[in-house]
Amino acid sequence: MIGLMDCNSFYASCEQVFRPDLSGVPVVVLSNNDGCIVAMNAAAKALGIRRGTPFFQARSLLASSHAAVFSSNYALYQSMSNRVMDVVRETFPMVEIYSIDEAFIPLPYAVSDLLSLARCTKSRVEQCTGIPVSLGFGRTKTLAKIANRWAKKRFPREGCFVLQEDREEVVLRSVPVADIWGVGTRKARVLIAHGITTAWDLRNASEYWVKKRLSLVTLKTLWELRGKPSIADELVPPPRKGILSSQSFSRAVTESRELEEAVASYAERAAAKLHAQGSTAAWVSVFITTSRFAGEQRYGAGASRRLDPPADYLPDITNAALGALGEIWRPGFRYAKAGVFLFGIDTSESRQPSLFTVPDPRKAAITRAAGLIREKYGHRGLRCLHAGGHRTWSMRQEHLSPRYTTSWADIPQAR
Ligand SMILES: [Mg+2]
C-alpha cells in the first residue's frame, strides 16, 4: 500500500493557525501581486468563491461577509509545510514530498491496522502544527490520490480512508475521469467522447486503444487503476533542468534602471536555487514584456548569453543577464513583467572542467560564503547592488500576515 497525505485548504489553514479568531470566518489567500484568489477555506468556498477569481471581482462579496484576506506568505507556508512533513515522518520515515502540501507515504511493509495508524498520524499532525490533513491509502499512487479524495468527501470528520482491493470497484465507479490524477480536461474530453466516463471505465479500457489514442502516461494511469504501480517513486526530486525566476511588476515599469534592478534581483534568486542544488548553468536568458491587456503598444523580447565556462558565480550570472537585457530593452514601452531563465544546467558530479580556463578559486570561495550567509540570514541577508534598494516595482502584498515561524520579530505573543 501507498498513502497520500494532503493538507486541507493549506494556505488558508496556515493563516488560521495563528489567528484563532478567524475560526468559522471565510479566509482567502491572494496570488503574487494580490491579483487572484489562489486558496480559500471551506467558509469562503461556501460563499461561492472559486480558485482563480480576480480579487477585484470578489472584493465587495468578501467585505460584506467579513472575510479575512491575505497576501501569499510563502515563508510561512514553507515553514509550516516542513513542520507537517516532520511530524508525518515520525510515523512513516519514507515520506516522499510531492508538493508544498502533499506527500506520498510508501509502505514497504504490511501494516495490520492501517486505518488507526492513519488516524493517529492525522491527529498528531493537527496537535503539533494546527494544520488539518487528510490521509488516503491505496495499492498505487493513483489509487491513493482517489482514496484521499474519498476521505475528504465521504468522511470529512475522520479524514482518513484505506481503499482495500475489494472496495475499488465501488469507489472507482463514482470517480469521474476528469478527477483522476494525471488526466487533464483535454484527455478527459477524448475519454468521455469514447464512453469512458469513470475511473472504473478507464481501468477496464483496452490498453492498446489508450496507448494509441492518448499516451503512455494515460496507459500508466490505467495500470495504476488496476493496482500495478507504474509511477516511479521519487524520494529525491531530480535536479531541475532549467531554473526560472520571473514575476509581474506591481506597476508599469518604464525606466531602464528599474528593469535592471528587477532582472538583477531575479538573477540573484535563480542563482541561489542553482547554488542550492550544487549545479552550474551554461546559459542565461532574459525576457521582458509589456502588459497583454493595457491596450497600449505591445513589445516582448528575449535574449541569451553564454556562460563560458558554465558558472554558479552570481556576478557572472548577473553581468550576463544585464548584457542580455541591454540587447532587448527599448525605450518608450510600459513593461509589465521580466524574467531570468538559467539553462544548460550541469550537476556537480557530471561537470566537465574546461580545458582552456583555470577556475578562479576566489569565485568558488565567494559563492560558498554567500551560500552560508543566506542560510543564516535568509535570502535578503546578502544582496547584489544591482538589485537596488527601493524596488518600488516589486510585488504588491497589501495583506501580508507576519512571518510567525521564521522571523523572531514576528513571533506571536501570548497574553
Ligand atoms: Mg491540499
Helix and strand arrangement:
Elements: E1 2-7, H1 10-17, E2 27-30, E3 37-40, H2 42-46, H3 55-64, E4 68-71, H4 74-91, E5 96-99, E6 102-106, H5 114-129, E7 133-138, H6 141-154, E8 160-162, H7 168-173, H8 185-193, H9 199-203, H10 207-213, H11 216-225, E9 243-253, H12 256-276, E10 279-290, E11 300-311, H13 314-328, E12 335-343, E13 346-347, H14 361-377
Parallel strand pairs: 2-4, 7-8
Antiparallel strand pairs: 1-6, 1-7, 2-3, 5-6, 9-12, 10-11, 10-12, 10-13
Bound molecules: magnesium ion (MG).
Provide a concise account of the structure shown:
The protein is an alpha+beta fold and 415 residues long. Helices cover 39% and strands 20% of the residues.
Can you describe what's shown?
It is a single chain. By secondary structure, the chain is of the alpha+beta class. The chain folds into 3 domains: 9-73, MutS, DNA mismatch repair protein, domain I; 77-225, Orthogonal Bundle (DNA polymerase, domain 1), CATH 1.10.150; 243-387, DNA polymerase, Y-family, little finger domain (Dna Ligase, domain 1), CATH 3.30.1490. It is 39% helix and 20% strand. The protein is built from 14 helices and 13 strands. It has a 5-stranded mixed sheet. Strands 9, 10, 11, 12 and 13 form a 5-stranded antiparallel sheet that branches. A hairpin with a 6-residue loop joins strand 2 (27-30) and strand 3. The two termini are 46 Å apart. The mean pLDDT is 88.
CATH topology value of the largest domain: DNA polymerase, domain 1
Number of discrete helical segments? 14
Q: Helical percent range?
A: 25-40%
CATH class of the largest domain: Mainly Alpha
Secondary structure tally: strands: 13
